[in-house]
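Here is one chain, start to finish.
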Amino acid sequence: MKVVIIGSGNVATVLARLFKKKNHEIVQVVSRELAHAKLLADEMGCSFTDNEGVIDTSAELYLVAVSDSALYSLNNSVHLGKKLVLHTAGSVSKDVLKDISVNYGVLYPLQSLRKELEPFGDIPFLIDGNTEETQTIIKDFAKTFSGNVCKSSDEERLKLHVAAVVVSNFTNHLYAMAEEFCNKENIDFKLLVPLIKETAQRTSNQSPANMQTGPAVRNDVFTLDKHLQLLANYPKLKYIYLKLTDSIVNS
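Its structure:
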């Protein structure tokens, strides 16, 4: 398909590369920042413009990969008639696009995407469309670059987005706190990486609830007390430790 990419950040860049790799043609990049649009357009070998420019109307699909807040103001400047328009947000209804085109939907990658990193594995895509015909087109398109495509309503997608924040964003924040603790205590955080990988890998074939280990689940008060004494100089980490310990004990 011929595709116009609206946006130039992490999601826009990773998906543009994925589309091109699977022989779809990126015909234009549109971005609020002209320099950013040019950077991605040069990589894709296509034209570019900023939000004040003219959008190429030769494309069959228009992918809107911008911030959630920007989606709500898009209909003030973009009108594409009957063209297929998709957004990539996890927590925004597909109907945010209803004033932009009569054919619209969602192509949400359930993965943390960074333009400087190669995507890990086969990215799951949650798709939706405002009509059955539109859904079929989106599904067929998505299957050209992913073996993991699933129809998901606005409500289902929002729930999965909440779960994604917990397992990815919150977990990464815990990694950052642990790394800071290790650095201040002059111990090597990298020694924990095999443990991180092993714990994550177990979730692929077992329920996390059945895999819980550690002093909290064993009710090992002696070890818990030693940990809390050590964390006396780290009140933020101590608070998180206590809250998670309480959650595990009472689960």
